[in-house]
């Protein structure tokens, strides 16, 4: 059902009026983890001033170590919703447990399925049974074919509002945290009718590579880019090496606009 052969036209996912996949490129930004109301508000306000409304933030965090910050859980979703209501923004946040999906739909506009859960089939079926749009990230070691089949699980259960997100794959290369598979973008656009996004933060793991990889993503035809922004990355509770601070975020946007890659 996600195949171009089944449907030739592009799927456009409507996020409270802001459309993803309609030909205009979108930016999804916000902190890695929700840490406090003040932290989310500061980033969201800077985004809103630049005309961005798609706010991401993690409340349920899939951390490699059980001793690392695990996220604020439901309280994090409450903070995101409060900020989004105040600033008229759209919330994207990850859910890891199928049992949390129903609850999360009351707080978020888009449910993110993280890389580590791309093949959590019960979770895919559960988000498939709701109408809430889904941002599905590519698994750390998933082939493009496995990625497409994961999206198929969601659509097969009734939810067509799916955005695919390339976020880097695991290779032997250690210069970056993962290897951004940029050619996945045109392949996914050819093979499926779904919008395709690129997460430059988790694919590179390097702040200095966010801008060039975002340009590459937009130039190659991605429908949007995801990147993380934190008021003070040095003290961030997760992903401190790759989040932009607010002046860096503003410079990032300006640079994308100057090249004409982002309007
Ligand atoms: C995230 O976007 O917050 C995240 C954890 O990314 P990924 O699942 O791609 O590692
Ligand atoms: Mn992160």
Automatic annotation (TrEMBL):
Q: Which UniProt keywords apply?
A: Coiled coil, Transferase
E.C. no: 2.5.1.54
Q: Which domain of life is it from?
A: Bacteria
One Gene Ontology term from the biological process aspect of the record:
chorismate metabolic process
One GO MF term: 3-deoxy-7-phosphoheptulonate synthase activity
Could you identify this protein by its name? 3-deoxy-7-phosphoheptulonate synthase
Q: Which organism is it from?
A: Salibacterium salarium
- Range of the intact protein held here: 95 to 357 of 358
């Amino acid at each position: 059902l996600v195949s171009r052969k089944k449907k030739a036209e592009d799927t456009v996912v409507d996020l409270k009026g802001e459309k993803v996949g309609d030909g205009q490129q979108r930016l999804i930004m916000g902190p890695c983890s929700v840490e406090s109301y003040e932290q989310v508000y500061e980033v969201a306000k800077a985004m809103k001033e630049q005309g961005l409304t798609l706010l991401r933030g993690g409340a349920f965090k899939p951390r490699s170590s059980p001793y690392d910050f695990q996220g604020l859980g439901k309280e994090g979703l409450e903070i995101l919703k409060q900020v989004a209501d105040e600033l008229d923004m759209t919330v994207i946040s990850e859910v890891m447990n199928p049992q949390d999906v129903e609850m999360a739909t009351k707080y978020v506009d888009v449910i993110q399925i993280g890389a580590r859960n791309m093949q959590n089939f019960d979770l895919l079926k559960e988000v498939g049974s709701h109408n809430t749009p889904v941002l599905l990230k590519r698994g750390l070691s998933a082939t493009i074919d496995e990625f497409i089949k994961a999206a198929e699980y969601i659509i097969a259960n009734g939810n067509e509002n799916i955005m695919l997100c390339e976020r880097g794959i695991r290779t032997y290369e250690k210069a970056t945290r993962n290897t951004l598979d940029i050619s996945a973008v045109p392949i996914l656009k050819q093979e499926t009718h779904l919008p395709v996004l690129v997460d430059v933060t988790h694919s590179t793991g390097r702040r200095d590579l966010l801008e060039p990889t975002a340009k590459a993503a937009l130039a190659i035809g991605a429908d949007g880019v995801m990147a993380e922004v934190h008021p003070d990355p040095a003290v961030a509770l997760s992903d401190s090496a790759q989040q932009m601070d607010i002046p860096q975020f503003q410079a990032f946007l300006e640079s994308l606009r100057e090249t004409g890659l982002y309007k």
